[in-house]
Structure formats: structure tokens, C-alpha cells
Amino acid sequence: MTLTLALTPCATLKDIFADGTRAEKLSKGEDLKLQRAETMPQTSVVFSSILGPSCSGQGQPGMGERGGGAGGSGDLIFQDGRLISGSLEALMEHLVPTVDYYPDRTYIFTFLLSSRVFIPPHDLLARVGQLCVEQRQQLEAGSEKAKLKSFSAKIVQLLKEWTEAFPFDFQDEKAMAELKAITHRVTQCDEENGTVKKAISQMTQSLLLSLAARSQLQELREKLRSPAMDKGPVLKAKPPAAQKDILGVCCDPLVLAQQLTHIELERVSSIHPEDLMQIVSHMDSRDKHRCRGDMTKTYSLEAYDNWFNCLSMLVATEVCRVVKKKHRTRMLEFFIDVARECFNIGNFNSMMAIISGMNLSPVARLKKTWSKVKTAKFDVLEHHMDPSSNFCNYRTALQGATQRSQTANSSREKIVIPVFNLFVKDIYFLHKIHTNHLPNGHINFKKFWEISRQIHEFMTWTQVECPFEKDKKIQSYLLTAPIYSEEALFIASFESEGPENHMEKDSWKTLRKAYSNSDS
């Protein structure tokens, strides 16, 4: 059934990937007006300065400098001491330690994260194994036993960092076989005291525990996953008037904002760096018609994206289902206060979802109700989410929350939950606008430094422990309360305040006819 008045909740991740033309328009800042009767806005990429001194990702290497191994010299380009491009082979060689060199930790994270765009993790691991063999052979030929032990310890340290940062790279048999092959070679020079063997054993145990925990979490999410929305049942008509509403469960805006923050942090914690890199990998697989980015692995992104849309729909449902105008006014003012508390906490994602719900057409058209609402607070919130100048106001607030988090004395001050869709679009457009390869064939590593920096910052935010006490009753309501379908929202809205123009009257007539036919 097609309605003249379309309800348009916030764009999903599929929308981000769906239309290259739309992406180009958005990257130029078009179609970015925030209106109550329209969807929450899209965004274009934010071009922050590429890696300032505090987060350049290319500090001084821990042990010596390396410009590429055999055949790799000259294949890495540095600018002001910062690696900006190189061939894939040279970048792989730069990852592998030598006797007098160990790669910077930020380089390890950035390359391991970005390399999956060009080569599967198990193939990269195989190449790392080959480079290890070559160096071992050179050291063995020189009978330098002490250097061989030092080199082996560094290889174990590299593998430890890899397995800790990206344990899911080792979930398939090929990668695990390569890991075993490398560690087997390394232990051959550790027959005296077994130090290397002990480190490998600890690394392997930690890896298996991480894989088991993530696998169990994935199975649980799949069981709970709804085919349509990660939410309770979708209502097609108004529920009984006696049914409980949000104010019957929680009437304190601060408490509700805290419980929303609990849910946000719990859900966002299931997102991993490689999940976010799927945004880049998927684009390359689509453009080149090869499957480097498996979108089936983005369930954690989709689940978090669905949560945003469900929260928006819940807000709209809670407002539209109220029969009396006085109570609807109170409900709107309550959610405005909740959104403001979310802003103060640093929970920008819930705040945006709530504003989005109040901006949906069935809610926005309730002019008589809105006329009774004290909208000054709402106007301030909309100012923070003004899409002009690439959401400049929001980004300023986000930067302030980030600075507060970095100097925080309490866990409450550490909370930063960005608007997820805007974060995803920033990564998407950063990848879209800058090429993977330079004209000389080098990988544009300057681009991947910036993508990695943004993802690393996001991951830092996700690791904050929620300081608020959990209220199971409130959370249960937020996660399981039935929400209206799009049609039901319009029906409830028209029943509260009748149609005012020909377009609304036609839509109302269409809706009533459709529902009378479905009931018969």
C-alpha cells in the first residue's frame, strides 16, 4: 500500500551503500535540511586534519627504522617522518620485525585493519610466515643464536598484538593453520628455557577464549534477531487504552537517559574494528565484483542501526497513542527532557533518535499539541543537530565531549556515544572521495591512517563501562514495548488531530479503506 504521506525514519546502513549518485550529492552537502516532517538528515564526510602530532599513528619505531626489506627499499614513502604510501609488498615487509626493528604499534593496528581491503587476513598471515622464514634462514646461516632468540620474541609479540586486536581473523582454518606453522618454527630456537613457548601458549589460550566468547555472543544475537526490527511486535492498530506507557514505567528524564545509555554502551560494545572496515571492504567488493567484504558479517552494525530506528519509532508511538492532547503535550515535553539529559551525558545517538522520532510526520503534524509544548528546549536540541556546515554544531559538541572524556576524573565524564549513522557516513565518504591507490600504484596509506584513527577513537569510546545502575524494568520496556507500524502511526495521528488539507484527507481515506478491507 502506497501512502501519499510517507513516513521516513532515519536512513539505514543499506541506504548508505545503495546509491552512488546519492552519495555524491551528500558529499557536496546537498539535501541536508532538517524539518520536523522529514527524515533526520544525511551527512557528508568531515575532513579533519590528517593525523596531528598526538595521533599521527607513526611515532618513532621502538627498535630502529625500516624502509622495506629485500626488494622493498624505496617502496615506502615518508613525509615529515610519517608513512604516507607504499606498495602492498613493502607495507607487509614493514609489518614484520627484524633483529633491530619493531614496527610502531599504531602502524601494526592501522595496517592489519586496512590490509583486509587488499588481501584476506589468512593470506597476509601466510606472507608474514614467509618473511619470518627468510629472516630465520639468514640468522641461522650466520650462527647468531642470540639474535635468533631476539627475533623470535619479536615475532611472538607481533602475533600477540594481532590476535588481541583482531581475534576474528583467526576463526577460519587457513588462518589458524598459518598461525600454528609460524609458532612452530619460532619455538625451534627456544629449547633451553621455554620462554617463547610459554608466551605462545598464553597467546593461543587467550585467542581461543576470545573466539569462543565472540562466537557465543554471535549465536545469542542471531537467536534474538528479529526479521524486521530488533524490537518487540509491531502493532497495526491502537492497543487498549489501559496499556502501560513509558511514563507509567519511568517519569524521570535523567533515569531514562541513563538507561538508554546502558543499552547504547551494551550494544555498541559488540562492534569491532573489522566490522567498521566492512564499510570500506563492501564498497570495493561491489565496485570490483569480488567478495572481499562479506556483508553478512555486519550484523552488529545492522543491529545497532536498527536500535536507533526502533527508538525513534518508539518515541513516535508513545506520543501518537496518547488520546488526550494534554497528555500528549506532557509526553512530548518528557522526551524533550530525556533528549537533553542524553546530550548532557554525552549520549548523542539516543538524543538524535529521540529528535528523529519527534520529527516523523505523524508526530510533527500534531500542530494543536505542539502549540501547547514549551519548545524552547526542543529548539536548543535542534540547534545542536542543525545539519548546516556538515553538522558543525553537533561536531563541536562531540569534540567537547571527547575532550571531557580525555581528562575525565570519573567514569560518568568518560561517556561519548556519537551519532552512529553520521560516524558511518564519515568513514564511507572518506573512503569514497579518496582513492585506495595513487597514480604510481602505491597504496594511499595516508587515507588509511585517517580511517584507522577515527575507528580507533570510536573503539576507545565503546570500551567505557557504564557507571549508572541498571534498571531491568525500564530496559525491558524500552527493548520489548510494542511499536506502531507506519500506517498505525498515521491512523493514530489522524484520530488525535484530523486531516487539515486535501493531501492528508486523501491519505486518511486510503488508510481507513485499507484497514476496513483487512478486517473484513
TrEMBL record:
<dbReference type="InterPro" id="IPR023578">
    <property type="entry name" value="Ras_GEF_dom_sf"/>
</dbReference>
<feature type="domain" description="Ras-GEF">
    <location>
        <begin position="252"/>
        <end position="499"/>
    </location>
</feature>
<feature type="domain" description="N-terminal Ras-GEF">
    <location>
        <begin position="79"/>
        <end position="208"/>
    </location>
</feature>
<dbReference type="InterPro" id="IPR001895">
    <property type="entry name" value="RASGEF_cat_dom"/>
</dbReference>
<dbReference type="Pfam" id="PF00617">
    <property type="entry name" value="RasGEF"/>
</dbReference>
<keyword id="KW-0344">Guanine-nucleotide releasing factor</keyword>
<dbReference type="InterPro" id="IPR008937">
    <property type="entry name" value="Ras-like_GEF"/>
</dbReference>
<protein>
    <recommendedName>
        <fullName>Ras-GEF domain-containing family member 1A</fullName>
    </recommendedName>
</protein>
<dbReference type="InterPro" id="IPR000651">
    <property type="entry name" value="Ras-like_Gua-exchang_fac_N"/>
</dbReference>
<dbReference type="InterPro" id="IPR036964">
    <property type="entry name" value="RASGEF_cat_dom_sf"/>
</dbReference>
<dbReference type="Pfam" id="PF00618">
    <property type="entry name" value="RasGEF_N"/>
</dbReference>
<dbReference type="GO" id="GO:0005886">
    <property type="term" value="C:plasma membrane"/>
</dbReference>
<dbReference type="GO" id="GO:0005085">
    <property type="term" value="F:guanyl-nucleotide exchange factor activity"/>
</dbReference>
<dbReference type="GO" id="GO:0007265">
    <property type="term" value="P:Ras protein signal transduction"/>
</dbReference>
